Amino acid sequence: MAQDNSSIDRRRTLECMVWAGSGVLWTLVGGVPQTSAVLGMGTARAQAAMGFSFLQISDSHIGFKQAANPNPLATLQDAISQVGGMATKPAFMIHTGDISHLSKPEEFDDAEKVIAGARLDVHYVPGEHDIVDEGRGADYLNRFGRKQKAQGTGWYAFDHEGVHFVGLVNVADLKAGGMGSLGAAQIAWLTEDLKGKSASTPLVIFAHIPLWTVYADWGWGTDDAAQVLALVKRFGSVTVLNGHIHQIMQKVEGAVTFHTARSTAFPQPAPGTAPSPGPLKVADERLRGVLGTTSITVRRGNEPLAIIDSALMKA
Amino acid sequence: MTTALDRRRLCAAALLLPLLTQRVRADEATVKIENFSFTPDTLNVKAGTVVIWSNDDDIPHSVVTTDGKVHSRALDTTDTFRFTFATPGTYDYFCGLHPHMKGRIIVAP
Question: pLDDT, tens digit, for every residue of A251-293?
Fold first, then answer.
């Protein structure tokens, strides 16, 4: 019995090795993917011809007017302008939510207008700020969910060059005293979606609130994330990308790598270092050093999948 | 020149005025939203009281009762939300955006 298990493990590991971007390989090479605030977007040029890269932006908070950044549209514009300067064009972009600050039509309009400047397909998931319209997310679904053929409150999946991408919603129907929540309907859908997928298929799962508990006192986690992690356990390479906390955090657990991106609008304090997770005011000249985007490069070959965070300005 | 009728009206107004202002004061209570918490987190009021939530944070919050019957819009910085608690009882609520923020209104008859 034990022998059977180990042979399955070996086979699984070998399957994963076909895709070098596997979490298995990551843990073998020492775990945490490289992250640097000062690396430029140019890192994408190292991308092998066989692979592709995509860009993650998050928490643009268009409509925010407070001291931490009175003009988040300008910093979003800076982030989008960097895309044009990248040596290799990303295949597409994901936006991990809080596009707007208050779900107002003009906030969504402004964000979309600037983001369109990147000339990339954008796959969105909502943040809690994107579903506070009167219809509680109806406007978001019309604008961003429909073109993804999203289900429920806006979840969906798509494939790109053999990688399976899943966009989840963990900001709707939140329960008193809880953190982020996916809900039974979404987990049932995900169970069905992953059924029949080969364990060697690399998975990229993205959602607004972290899918691991970063800091429960501030609600920085997702109550039912463990059910998702159980579903993806058999996969050799799982990358989980989130936003919400406006700072870079990462963790590797077996074959699963968790990573949160910076905001393009304003930073938030490190867990427990302030009375609340509210916007952090930094000196104006430092602001662009603590905002940024994340580029994820997926390669077929024998190098690890790379997650590179880039600030809007060198710190 | 003041007529008897005018004097009576003035008297009535003078008597009523403090009653009215007192009534307004007694009927309102405020919950401050700051640093991602409701202060006070438990508020005792009499039936008919208008509770006013006022957001002092740089991030929007909302007021949602656990029974779903009260659901404010998202309150931006300095926005307020008023709700009249007509029926005695205990009302637990939370922030719909940050559900770890919880509060309670206890309405006495």
Answer: 999 889 999 999 999 999 999 999 999 999 999 999 999 999 9
State the number of CA atoms in the 13 A half-sphere of A175 facing the CB: 7
**Domains of chain B by start residue, with CATH:** 27-108 (2.60.40.420)
The residue with tokens 């289900």 is A151
Beta carbons of B93 and A176 less than 8 Å apart? yes
Between positions 71 and 100 of B, the ones with CB within 8 A of A are: 73-74, 76-77, 92-94, 96-100
Task: Tell me whether residues B76 and A68 touch, CB distance under 8 A.
Answer: no
A138 vs A33, A55, A131, A175, B76, CA distance in Å?
A: 37, 26, 7, 20, 20
Interface with chain A: mutation pick from B33, B34, B56, B58, highest number of A CBs within 10 Å? B58
The ipTM (two decimal places) reads: 0.81
The CA-based dihedral angle spanning residues A227, A225, A127, A244, taken in that order and rounded to the nearest 10 degrees: -160
A178, A219, A279: residue with CB nearest B59: A279
Q: In the CATH hierarchy, which fold is given to the domain comprising A2-311?
A: Purple Acid Phosphatase; chain A, domain 2 (3.60.21)
- pLDDT, tens only, A108-148: 999 999 999 999 999 999 999 999 999 999 999 999 999 99
pLDDT 10s digits, B62-76: 999 999 999 999 999
Hey, are the CB atoms on A67 and B58 less than 8 Å from each other?
A: yes
Domain segments of chain A: what residues?
2-311
